[in-house]
Design brief:
mainly beta
Length: 174
């Protein structure tokens, strides 16, 4: 945890980052930002404890898979999640929520598995060589809630053998 508008930065040169569920998570107060960067082509990021900011931004990045097993919440900042060489996988029932003007960007070399992304601004998703998929197969609730959404995928957007991607947006670009 940080206070007084301080940033939280965790970087590895070539290694995984795991936020264990036994911990209280990562939280900033004020305008502090959170940076979780697992460097190296084979480094993963596993988020198992809450990550929250008041007004700060979040940048989460890994060389391979990003596994989001718990909520990411900011009260006004933006959220950017990147998997350089693999997929982003949100566990079923998990949410990334921006309560304010910040946007949400998820970029993966392979697939993006979406549970719930929610903001009053825009959402940009890019699956460079993969698909954007619904990771809540038994639900028809919205996976993406925003003013606008830009969706880019080399393969499928929202359709696989399990379920479709549900949107609650004013406009969408695909």
């Amino acid at each position: 945890d940080s206070s007084n508008n301080s940033n939280i930065s965790i970087f590895t040169i070539d290694g995984a980052i795991i936020l264990p569920s036994e911990q209280s998570g990562t939280t900033t107060v004020g305008s502090g930002d959170i940076f979780l960067i697992a460097g190296g082509d084979n480094s993963s990021l596993s988020i198992n404890a809450p990550v929250m900011t008041q007004a700060g931004d979040m940048m989460l990045q890994a060389g391979t898979a990003v596994r989001q097993n718990i909520d990411l919440i900011t009260q006004g900042g933006a959220v950017a999640v990147t998997s350089d060489n693999d997929s982003i996988i949100m566990a079923e029932g998990v949410c990334t929520e921006v309560n304010g003007d910040g946007g949400i960007i998820y970029r993966a070399e392979k697939d993006i598995h979406v549970s719930l992304l929610k903001t009053s601004a825009g959402i940009d998703l890019a699956a460079i060589q993969g698909s954007i998929l619904d990771n809540t197969p038994d639900s028809e609730k919205a996976n993406i809630m925003a003013v606008n959404a830009a969706l880019l995928a080399a393969n499928n957007i929202g359709k696989d053998s399990k379920s479709d991607l549900d949107l609650a947006v004013d406009s969408v670009t695909a």
